[in-house]
Design a protein that fits this description.
Blueprint lengths: L1 H43 L12 H15 L4 H21 L6 H24 L3 H11 L8 H20 L1 H8 L2 H6 L4 H23 L5 H13 L3 H25 L8 H19 L6
């Protein structure tokens, strides 16, 4: 009995420390990254509909990661972050071409970029083997993966470091949320700061998409919950969004893992089911300005 008890305890330790624990940590980092990126985009663009997934930034990260896989590159987060930065830049440029940015213009730009990048990814998948295609498609649907301590440590440094940078500059983000003209009058170097935000949020998005695929709507829903509960001051919103994002993703991953156990749903399907109606509600309420 003693030997069996020891073996049972050892089995539980393996499940918790090597399987469940790393997966919960990964879900927390994914939720933190996407929620803080969404809060940052919403303040920077003064747009309640801004979100890495809806704006095509997550698709840019996915496209960069798929290209890296096809070419045999080993450092996926870098390729995904570059793809996210490029797609973010394109979306912002398109949405500004008609003058003052409108929420619907931004969403339309995101739809266009998403569609284009989806086509690029489809072409790349067509040249992949059958086994690789199945893996890529499941990855694209969003899946919280269990990674080694080394990978988790790298993701933790990227996510926590990026969030710390955004928190450090949160006061400037509040100025930018009041409008570019107001921010300039108060001494903020707007263009340089916007590029700083794009680079940091692209790193946040890229590093989680590289390992977990496309997980939508977390960056849309969570900042609005945080803003409703604690206000729009980014010095409070950024850490609150990180905390709420971690909680939301752990809950979503638990549901994805248990609803049809022993099989597993893509966690991206769970977040999309919750986020789709929320997005439609926001789209209906969207106006010419974001306060």
């Amino acid at each position: 009995v003693g030997v069996e008890s020891i073996e049972t305890i050892r089995t539980h330790e393996i499940i918790v420390l090597e399987l469940r624990g790393p997966r919960v940590l990964m879900a927390m980092f994914v939720g933190m990254a996407l929620a803080v990126a969404g809060a940052t985009f919403q303040s920077m663009l003064r747009n309640p509909l801004a979100d890495p997934y809806l704006l095509g930034i997550s698709s840019g990260a996915a496209c960069g990661a798929v290209i890296a896989l096809m070419l045999g590159w080993s450092f996926l987060p870098l390729a995904a972050s570059v793809g996210a930065l490029l797609s973010a830049t394109v979306v912002v440029i398109i949405s500004h071409r008609s003058g003052r940015m409108h929420p619907h213009t931004l969403v339309l730009a995101g739809v266009v970029v998403n569609a284009f990048l989806a086509s690029v990814i489809a072409v790349l998948i067509a040249f992949s083997s059958a086994d690789a295609t199945r893996g890529i498609i499941f990855w694209l649907m969003g899946n919280v993966s269990t990674q080694s301590i080394t990978v988790l440590s790298m993701i933790a440094m990227c996510v926590l470091g990026s969030i710390a940078l955004l928190f450090w500059k949160a006061r400037n983000l509040d100025l930018l949320a009041q409008g570019e003209s107001v921010a300039k009058q108060l001494g903020l170097e707007v263009e340089g700061y916007k590029w700083f935000l794009l680079v940091v949020t692209s790193l946040l998005t890229g590093v989680v998409v590289a390992y977990n695929g496309l997980i939508g709507f977390v960056g849309l829903i969570v900042p609005h919950i945080g803003r409703f509960l604690f206000g729009s001051d980014n010095r409070f919103l950024i850490p609150i969004a990180a905390l709420l994002g971690a909680i939301v993703m752990v809950v979503a991953d638990t549901l994805a893992r248990t609803i049809i156990a022993p099989s597993e749903l893509p966690v991206g399907a769970i977040t999309a089911l919750a986020g789709g109606p929320f997005f439609l509600l926001l789209l209906r309420r969207a106006r010419h300005s974001f306060t």
